[in-house]
Amino acid sequence: MFRVLRTAAIVAAVMSVIVQAQDNTDRATVSRGKEIFGQCSGCHSAETDEKKVGPPLKGLFQRAKLRNGKPVTEKNIRSRIEQGGDGMPAFSELLSDKEKIDLISYLKTL
What pTM does this model have? Predict the structure, then answer.
């Protein structure tokens, strides 16, 4: 019985470390995404519903659809970032894949 309890305690400790490491990674990803969003903030507001040049992005992932009628999904957001459209420039060559992931992680927090 002691052996089972000791094994369970070890597993719980390891899982706690893994969860904490993942949480730290998530925070770092969101933080980097917020920095990248600085390039977007001239045209898009993140904290208000104020329309600048482009639409506000506050609550983006709580919306049902994008302005182009497509559902709000990571795939569709990434496509819009990469291809641009409706006056927005394409960022496919300006942002790395990692930067796009970080940016989308940040957009999910708005």
Answer: 0.76
